[in-house]
């Protein structure tokens, strides 16, 4: 026992060494047996040692398929291009028009790289059909093929502005105008967006009534009137004017209210003040009560002004039947009139210099971010965006909101 205690570590190390040597011997023996089995299999298949040659490298001389891959006729697209297809949109291919070849080719190929056969007019007609849109940008391939600056495999060109007239190529296509002619452009109303339907408050409210005796005509009425964008106090009696209104009548009335602080009742003035604007419009106001104008107005946003940082000018509140002007440059203006408004959208019509109304144009709802991404102009190599001549610039120190 004393011997084992003194040489315990040496014994353990010896056992491990024997185990490693045993495993190595077993592994080498397995490899040798595998080699013998492979030779036996070759002999059964009639293959001699001379048949075990290394595989030749694939070149254009011994692999016909490689010629197709390197052929200039095939416009192979980079990884990620929409023409290669996605999980939800399969790539498009054609079969060679030559029956003796019948290879499968990318759709963009016009000449087969295998047999050099042209793919024929049928393929061209299919490629330029009105329904086909290879990049899914809303502009058909036939339309993009007609314009050299458009690429049917590049969806990004839909949001560019080739003629720098303030309208994207896609908007030009939808309006059937020429995308390379700045004089041919869609109506400016295409750049309008509907924000919401709104009702404008009356510019006058009753603040206080001071009773002087029993004759209502002598009572002094204090009004709050909106003048030049700010509220001011104005005083008037029955028969006098306040702003655009005339005080016609005053009907005395009091109501009992409870003061929650002291839990006591008190009498409050709730008299009706009758105002008239013009010949027919009559409004009845009560103290501290806000009334609204008749009819619904539409809040519209003009995207070119918004993109240029002119948010105050971009937002327009327009009533039905009211005319307003859209301007993309000092010498480029168009007049419109609001014809309809609902909770979801609005409709406008262009007004000619002679006052005639054109075809109505529906104003779609505003989508924050998405609309501004499509309202841009081409960016030259300098990296700075070019605005049309005379286009309103950005005020110093301002950046457009994102």
Q: Can you describe this structure?
A:
Among the domains are: 188-195 and 297-374, no CATH class; 204-286, no CATH class. The chain has nine helices and 18 strands. It has helices at residues 2-6, 8-44, 64-70, 120-127, 141-145, 169-174, 303-307, 311-314, 370-374, and strands at 93-95, 104-106, 192-198, 204-210, 220-227, 230-236, 241-242, 245-251, 254-259, 264-269, 272-277, 281-286, 297-302, 315-319, 323-329, 332-341, 346-351, 361-363. The strands form six sheets. It has a four-stranded antiparallel beta sheet with strand order 7-8-11-12, with no helix packed on it. Strands 15-16-17-18 form a four-stranded antiparallel beta sheet, with no helix packed on it. It has a three-stranded antiparallel beta sheet with strand order 3-13-14. Strand 1 and strand 2 (104-106) form a beta hairpin. The longest helix is centred in the first third of the chain and has 37 residues, at 8-44. Mean pLDDT is 77; it is low at 72-83 and 375-402.
List keywords for this structure.
402 residues; alpha+beta; 4-stranded antiparallel β-sheet; disordered C terminus; 18 strands
What is the end-to-end distance? Answer: 85 Å
Number of strands: 18
How would you sum up the major sheet? 4 strands, antiparallel
Mean pLDDT: 77
| Low-pLDDT runs | 72-83, 375-402
The portion of residues forming beta strands comes to 25-35%
State the share of residues found in helices, binned by percent: 10-25%
Helix tally equals 9
Q: Report the C-alpha radius of gyration, rounded.
A: 42 Å
**H/E order of the elements?**
HHHEEHHHEEEEEEEEEEEHHEEEEEH
- Provide the structure class: alpha+beta
């Amino acid at each position: 026992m004393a011997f084992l205690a003194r040489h315990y570590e040496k014994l353990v190390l010896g056992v491990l060494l024997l185990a490693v040597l045993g495993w190595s011997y077993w592994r080498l023996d397995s490899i040798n047996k595998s080699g013998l089995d492979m030779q036996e299999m070759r002999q059964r298949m009639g293959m001699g040692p001379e048949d075990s040659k290394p595989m030749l490298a694939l070149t254009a001389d011994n692999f016909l398929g490689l010629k197709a891959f390197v052929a200039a006729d095939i416009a192979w697209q980079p990884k990620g291009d929409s023409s290669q297809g996605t999980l939800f949109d399969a790539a498009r291919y054609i079969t060679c028009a030559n029956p003796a070849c019948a290879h499968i080719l990318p759709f963009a190929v016009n000449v087969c790289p295998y047999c050099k056969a042209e793919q024929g007019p049928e393929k061209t007609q299919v490629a330029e059909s009105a329904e086909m849109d290879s990049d899914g940008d809303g502009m058909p391939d036939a339309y993009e093929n007609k314009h050299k600056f458009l690429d049917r495999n590049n969806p990004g060109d839909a949001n560019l502005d080739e003629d720098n007239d303030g309208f994207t190529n896609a908007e030009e296509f939808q309006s059937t105008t020429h995308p390379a002619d700045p004089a041919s452009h869609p109506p400016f109303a295409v750049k309008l967006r509907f924000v919401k339907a709104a009702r404008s408050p009356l510019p006058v409210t009753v603040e206080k009534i001071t009773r002087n005796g029993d004759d209502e005509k002598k009572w002094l009425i204090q009004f709050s009137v909106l003048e030049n964008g700010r509220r001011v106090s104005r005083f008037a009696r029955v028969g006098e004017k306040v702003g655009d209104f005339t005080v016609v009548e005053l009907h005395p009335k009091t109501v009992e209210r409870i003061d929650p602080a002291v839990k006591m009742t008190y009498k409050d003035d709730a008299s009706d003040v009758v105002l008239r604007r013009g010949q027919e419009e009559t409004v009845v106001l009560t103290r501290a009560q806000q009334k609204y104008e008749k009819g619904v107005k539409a809040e519209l946003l003009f995207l070119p002004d918004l993109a240029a940082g002119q948010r105050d000018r971009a937002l327009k509140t327009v009533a039905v039947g009211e005319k307003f002007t859209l301007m993309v440059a000092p010498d480029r203006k168009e007049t419109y009139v609001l014809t309809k408004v609902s909770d979801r959208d609005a409709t406008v019509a262009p007004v000619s210099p002679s006052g005639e109304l054109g075809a109505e144009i529906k104003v779609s709802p505003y989508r924050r971010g998405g609309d501004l991404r499509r309202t841009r102009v081409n960016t030259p190599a300098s990296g700075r965006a070019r605005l049309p001549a005379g286009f309103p610039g950005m005020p110093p120190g301002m950046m457009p909101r994102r």
